[in-house]
Amino acid sequence: MTSKSQPSSIRPYPELVKDNEPTVPQFGILDKLHGTWVNWKGGPKGLHTTPMPSPGTSSETVFGVFHFKSQQYREQLTFTKVNAPVRNRAGSNEQFNGPVKYETAIIDNKGDLQHFENGMYLWLGDNTMPWQEDGKYQNPRTMFSRPSTQETVDEDGGVPVIGPGELGPQFVPPHSISRSGVIPHGTTIHLTGNVTHFDKKETPDAPEKPEIAKLWEQPYLSISPTMGIDPERDLIPGSLEKPFWTNLPREEQRDYPGQPEAHRGVNSARAYFLNIFNYDEDGAKFPYTVQPNLLLSQFNEGLNFKSYDLIELDSQHDTGVQGATVNNVMIERYCRVVRMRHRMWLERVELENGKEIDQLQYEQIVDFEFMFGASGETTQWPHIQVNTLRRIEDIAEEDRYPPIKLPEEADTPVKTPKAKVHHMNHKVK
């Protein structure tokens, strides 16, 4: 004898039957990504900041010396919508994902390939409960309910556990978007998050332009609190001026006023900070080596934004199911990737000639962990990338760069001993 399921406080999704099974994928905001996005001549370039262990060091022997690398770069980022929905069966719930493949290739100012990566974005649906047939976020549908039927009970041997007409709890997706990616250095990522839409016509009090970040806002700096620097104490609030102490040799910083005794004098952390603040190579310099997203906000000055969407993804969340960063053995042991945050702005911009085009800006922050500080605590090292891209068809022929070729597309095979594929940044001076 079977027991009927208790009524749920959440109304079921529409029941999945043969007549309403999706055959066309729904992409939500991801529909705007389709195509190829690139840098252009006369426009801004991307910038990365990357920390790494210094040559000859290791966490087991010589530690406490660190290398900093930063470069301008240009990118070719292609998104391709997959023409079929991907069905996830979960018993009482069924979900139909909208998949969008992505592939990126990045070269430095010298034309050397610095990074390539591929993966997939999934539109999971924007759902609220209880179900509203005419609800703003309910259509297009990606979630359906699937109660048992006499046919499924007989076919799957359900008696005596389950009878026809039963339905379990209804799952409400906590996120609308997920991103999975494979980085050839040995890390696989999975990020989840949501999208926020801004449009002056729909919401008069919406910001005129994307709010990237405040000056010296800690979460977006290439230095983390675990390194022993405090923006409120060590930087000049509201000013792009370099802090005076960055012009002093390490041995003269012993008497730097206001510093805790442990932070004074000659130490490797101060050497690392001096490298960041005084860096001037490959198009990278202060203040962008400290806060890269200033490149995004400064380029936006004077642009006329009609609307924009902000996608925010993270491998960590305060509650609920987490994303992931999974590393192979060497990366896990010597330079762990422990978290990745990604912000992407899809913007509709009006040019001076009145033409409206799409613009894509992104910032991603990858937290490394390697070695430890003088206090013995684990140090987090932010690896940051920012870029501003436009669709290739919106760029005049004379302003386009040559296409970027991936290794498998090279004119001649890449010989392993001479390969020029590096981590953005693993070229050490």
Account of the 3D structure:
There is one protein chain. This protein has 429 residues and is mainly beta. It is built from five helices and 16 strands. The termini are far apart. Residues 416-429 have low confidence and may be disordered.
Question: What is the secondary structure topology, with strand pairs?
Answer:
Elements: E1 35-38, E2 46-53, E3 66-81, E4 86-90, E5 93-108, E6 113-123, E7 143-145, H1 150-156, E8 177-183, E9 187-199, H2 231-234, H3 268-278, E10 280-281, E11 284-285, H4 294-300, E12 304-314, E13 324-327, H5 329-334, E14 336-350, E15 356-372, E16 378-391
Antiparallel strand pairs: 1-3, 1-16, 2-3, 2-16, 3-5, 4-5, 5-6, 5-7, 6-8, 8-9, 9-12, 9-13, 10-11, 12-14, 14-15, 15-16
